[in-house]
Amino acid sequence: MKKLILVLVAMLLLVGCSSKGKTDLDAEPEKGLDTTSEAETKEVGFSFKNNDVTINMNVPAKETIDALGEPMDYFEAASCAFQGLDKIYYYSGFELSTYPNKDVDYISSVTFSDDSVSTIEGICLGSKLEDVLAAYGDDYKEELGLYTYTLGKTNLTFLIEDNLVASVNYLAVLE
Amino acid sequence: MKKKLLINIVVVCFWLTFLFFLQRLLLPKYMSEIHEGNMTEEYYKDKSSHDVIFIGDCEVFSNISPITLWEKYGITSYIRGSAQQLIWQSYYLLEDTLRYEKPKVVVFNVLAMKYNEPQKEAYNRLTLDGMKLSKSKINAIKASMTEEEALITYIFPILRYHTRWNELSGEDFKYIMSKDKITHNGLLMRIDVKPVTTIPTGKKLADYQFGENSYDYLDRMTKLCKENDIELILIKSPSVYPYWYEEWEQQMVQYAKDNDLKYFNFLDTAAEIGIDYNEDTFDGGLHLNLSGAEKLSDYFGKILSESCQLMDHRNDLDLKKLWDEKTAFYYNMKEAQQNELELYGYLKSYGAKAPSNDDTSIE
Would residue B160 count as lying in a domain? Predict the structure, then answer.
């Protein structure tokens, strides 16, 4: 009987204790952003540049959004059930999305909306596939016409239709 | 020998009882926030039967008013909805529902077809923790778990929530054994208003085809309803976001045609329904508020009543008595929300966030 009790107590203490520890189920589902100083020294990945503003993924959004100035439009989508908003800022030629993590908004993506903007490497909507391959090489994953390049914590994707770039997305890699 | 056996039995019973109450204490109560966490469980307290069962995500539990269906058409209904309910969860919740009753009609909101794989534990918990233990629950858990999750933590939730011991609040003790009713046959009421200002256009996708897993569960749902002589109706709620692609629409139209099902896209008929996206949404178009839900329910209720030959139960004295109580609770909460809006400017007790200085929320 004593052994049984000890086993029950041991189960409570040991089983279910994961490395995640705190349940945190009453907060926004964790996006897995690593914000340690060590992470900050890692390669940030693909950057997008608009005028003089460099935009990186998975970084706090405030400074970037302040630097970009007043957006043309804005949309926010509340998370189902949980607090926190996904936000979309519309600028000339692109839209920038953020996600919340513990009261701080981080940049989750940049999507081109027309051909007035281009990547730092010169690719815009309507560019040819061969230009993409020349600019970024052949270290990509391709599925159904979607070419994905990964660098650091950023995916840069090109959707190719009829040999031309139909969409360009910078996406934060969320763990 | 007998005495020793008896002592052992008493000790075991003591520990089991202790663990039972400890688990009840540690489970989140979802009474002061994230009310969605109580929705699955609340169904079991309603012992009456329903002619219509709605299943799906927040596009049903925000956008349909069972009270309006009753008041206008005498239709009895329940919304077995939950936050980001995935299609396999809808299927198993339907299976679960059929253990208790057999509706004439099941209505499924098709937005969930866009999710082909398990998503997030936090949403799984909101939907599944409240399910009574059954084969359907086990299968729902298995279909829903992400890689990091373990089945045993759903069977014995104390194994997941034991770390909440240092987060316990008065709410955990107050509601340890029972909770207050928060929904109206599954409707989570919000009367506040936040107009639509911008409607995002959909980003180009590489592949618009719904996944095999989604279709598998839609097939299972169709088959389950047919086997039980239940009419399955597919709908797309008139929420403007997430974006509903034309390519997705075509798939649902085709599926409904191939399987002899009715399908209604209420986005296309929003104007006919009378939905005003300046007045009828509480979050800029993602979900309808009560005003919008009542309009949609009035419109859809007419369709249900006529095309499904649903009985008008308003002359059934027993049902009328039951639904009079539900209706009173509904209007009492509506009044309470109106009072709270006047007092605080937002629905403090009902899941709304306090407006920021540049918030466009209005009463």
Answer: yes
Residue span of the structural domain in which A109 resides: 39-172
Q: What is the Rg, in whole angstroms, of the alpha carbon atoms belonging to chain A?
A: 21
Do B159 and A22 count as a contact with CB atoms less than 8 A apart?
no
Nearest by CB to A29, from B120, B200, B207: name it.
Answer: B120
How close, in Å, is residue A140 to chain B by CA atoms? 15
Would the CB atoms of B159 and A82 count as touching at under 8 Å?
no
8 A C-beta contact, residue B87 and residue B112: yes
Could you give the CA distance from residue B254 to residue B319 in angstroms, rounded to a whole number?
38
| Other beta carbons less than 10 A from residue B315's beta carbon | 9
Residue A167 included in any domain: yes
Q: How many domains does chain B have?
A: 1
A159 touches chain B (CB under 8 A): yes
In a domain, B253, yes or no: yes
Q: Do B11 and A5 touch (CB under 8 A)?
A: yes
**Residues of chain A found within 8 Å of residue B127, distances taken between Cβ atoms:** none
Is residue B310 assigned to a domain? yes
**What gap in Å lies between CA A155 and CA A170, rounded to an integer?**
6
In a domain, A3, yes or no: no
Number of domains chain A is built from: 1
Instruction: Say what the pTM is.
Output: 0.89
Report the chain B residue with the minimal C-alpha distance to residue A167.
B204
Q: What is the pLDDT along chain B (363 residues), one digit of tens a residue?
A: 788 899 999 999 999 999 999 999 999 999 988 899 999 999 999 999 999 999 999 999 999 999 999 999 999 999 999 999 999 999 999 999 999 999 999 999 999 999 999 999 999 999 999 999 999 999 999 999 999 999 999 999 999 999 999 999 999 999 999 999 999 999 999 999 999 998 888 999 999 999 999 999 999 999 999 999 999 999 999 999 999 999 999 999 999 999 999 999 999 999 999 999 999 999 999 999 999 999 999 999 999 999 999 999 999 999 999 999 999 999 999 999 999 999 999 998 887 877 765 444 333
Residue B141 has which token pair? 């858990």
Domain of A126, CATH number, reads 3.40.33.10
The CATH number of residue B53's host domain is 3.40.50.1110
Give the ipTM: 0.83
In this structure, the number of other CB atoms found within 10 A of the CB of residue A68 comes to: 17
Question: Using the beta-carbon criterion (under 8 Å), do A4 and B12 form an inter-chain contact?
Answer: yes
Q: Across the interface, do B83 and A80 touch by the CB < 8 Å criterion? A: yes
Closest-CA residue in chain A for B354?
A83
Question: Does A133 reach chain B within 8 Å, measured CB to CB?
Answer: no
Residue B189 and residue B284: Cα distance in Å, rounded? Answer: 16
